[in-house]
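User: I'm curious whether this sequence folds into something compact or stays loose and floppy. Could you predict its structure so I can see for myself?
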Amino acid sequence: MTPEENVAAVRDFVERAWNRGDESVFSEHLAPDFNYPGGPDGFKAMILGFRAAFAEFRVDIEDMFGVDDKVVTRFTMRGTHRGEFMGVEATGRSVEFGGIAIDVMDDDKRIRGWAQLDMLGLRRQLGAL
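Assistant: Here's the prediction. I'll summarize afterward.
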């Protein structure tokens, strides 16, 4: 796959999984041995957990580029805290926090990925510190 095709695949995953909660995208875009705790099912549970805790949840891609088999994405996450999240009961607060992810692609599937999210900023916005 070309870097452009890899970028398109990751963009499709973000839109369908994070922004729409389309569960079919996980088997379509994640390798069976994807390096998240619990594999693709663990990653799916994490994403669906965000979507359940935050109404109007959205991931906006700020920057994205591909080099060889890697895709780098800088993004902003937004939503309204309507359900329990990481032990914090719903606050009704709107949140916005950023992150950066690096994914390694092989044949249109994410085989490895790393992300840094501003969880400290999120917890501050929730009043959890």
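Summary: Helices lie at 3-19, 24-29, 39-53, 119-125. The beta strands are 54-67, 70-81, 94-106, 109-117.
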